Amino acid sequence: MGDRTHVLSAVSAAMEAELRLLDPAVRSAPDLMAELLHPGFREFGSSGREWDRDSIVAALTAKGAPGPRPITTSKMKGVQLAPDLVHLTFDTDSNGRRAHRSSLWRLTDKGWLLYFHQGTPFTSEDEPS
To answer: Which domains does the chain have, with CATH numbers?
Structure first.
């Protein structure tokens, strides 16, 4: 029973961190965003662009950048792949822009940090009936 509780807490902690990262208040604050991203962070964005930690923080928090839009999440689930690694999958909708998402969270001495993220755009026609 203890192992199952540990797994649930790891997945829950990663989910909580993911939801914090999607919060518009965090997305517009470089220091808050950076503290959730692993130094080796990489992302293949739904735009098709590849990002690293510095470039994603700079892009999302740049002066003149459009303010972060509210993001709705659905179907979030996770699995603990190793004691220090959780994989999350979920869907997002940001003002009609929908994407399937996949995140790898690593446990470090600073807590759970996002190590890798990928977003793939989709439309309602892409979903099975």
So the answer is: 2-126 (3.10.450.50)
